[in-house]
Amino acid sequence: MRKYLFQNKIMLTLICSYLAIIAAVTGAAGRIAYSQRQGELLADLNMTLMRAVNEYENLTSHFWNIYIPIFERGSETQGILREYFSGDRTKDLTAMQKMELASAMRQMAARDDNVRWIAVISEERAVNYAWFSEQNTLQRLGDNFPYWEELAKKQDVMEIYGRKAFRVLEQNIDSIAMAGGLPGGVGRGALVVGLDVAGLERICRSESEFSTLQFDVILDGKSLFTTGSQPYLPEDLPEKGMSGILRSPDGKRRYVQVSADTTRWVKCCYSVEWGELFRLSHRTTGFMIFSVAFLVALSLVICAVMLYVLNREVKVIRDGLVEIGENHLDSRIKGPFHQVGFREIADAINAMAASLKENVDRAYYYELRQKEAELQELQSKFNPHFLYNSLELFCARCYQNGDEDTAELIAQTAAIFRGFIGSETFIPIQEELAFSKRYLKLFSARYGEAVQIRYDFDSEVLQYGIVRNVFQPLVENYFVHGIDTSREDNVLCFHGRILNDEMICITVEDNGLGMPEEAMQELNRHLYEPITTAKESYGLKNLHQRLRLFYGESCGLELHKNPNGGMSIQILIKRLKCSEVKKASRNKNPGTER
How far apart (Å, rounded) are the C-alpha atoms in residues 12 and 7? Predict the structure, then answer.
């Protein structure tokens, strides 16, 4: 089988093409699956990023709701804050002032559920305070307040400070801060609000397949929020709405996507290691490749089994052809065959062998018959020769006695017998017609004007030849069986025409007695039966079989009934010239010429 596979170039080409196609399809399918899976993963991350951006915007957009009471002139809150920011630096707040300040900041915090603390920072006071929503208490700000450094550098009316954690009353406070300045006339300082980042943290840390996923909120190159152990602050961070693959300081590449839906100076983004994204995107690729490899292996096994079965059946046909080719025509190709086409091929070869054997047997039979006919012809030439000499003697005596009519009939009879013993078996059609005319004169002497003989031959037909003594048995058959002696207008007509590029059709028809249709059909069938008596050898059957023996099975006689009475005998012969037949005979028997 392996030898057959690798020596059969067509099969090898097909297998290689199949593997190449499978590889291309697998690669394309893997690429599509990779792109689709990566798209799904990134779509989930983009959705999470969008939610995180919305959460961040909600956190920062409500600051003005908290900050606006400072600008409400005449309000209790503004009065308390004005007193706080413009108070004596050396004096601390009284208990009543602390209660009022805590109440004012509680009212401000009520405007936003995300507020964790509010700090009032006055440049005039030595001690500043912050209100914490969870503890619902007003506390002094000590050195552990994480935003002292940012406040010391504060310049803008509103600033956002990054996420930081500090401890208050044994509790950890984790928040981002927003600081706003004071309106004129209130004092100098800042109002700072701490916003809870738990919701943002919860969104960014929602269930994900990535272990290296990190969300960052960046403002002017500084981190406001991150879910990583360290903020991710690349210098070549893509613009808003863009993505890219960047190399981090540790040498690893990270895929970065920046949201397009943030405020002017803020960038919200997520990043994940490219290797992890690539691996998760190819999660199904391995299974796909394994499945394809399994299917390819299975298909190759099936192909190998089918090739084995095909090769075995081809070998049976090949061995059968070899045996038949060695002239064992009785041999037959036997199955079983699983392929319908091979069974049909084997049946066709068996039929061909049977037909070939039949043709060989028939050719052998015809060869024997031809040799027998040639022997009979040689044995029968003596008597016609003797009769011909005797008729010449009778003709001479009739001329001596003055009986010229009888002498002419005897001369025609002698000419007919001379034609019988001629050496040529294939003569021109024109010569055969001349011989038939002599034979017809004998019968014309008997019937006189009661029979008319007509000839209608195309001039081209006369260029070809025909086997000897074709018309004589037809003429004899007409005068013996077909002539109607009760009428005076009997007609016997000979027609000859070119049928096609290979055949000539000669028709001999009469208006005589004819025969019934069933008898004519029986006679047509009888023409193909073997000659069993000497009497039959000179009849229509002898002529039919001589024509088939010389020209082939497509030639011969066929009898028809004329519509107006009488019979029509159709003769089919091949277009052969005498020179062609003589040349072929010399090539076949070169020793016959001297």
Answer: 8
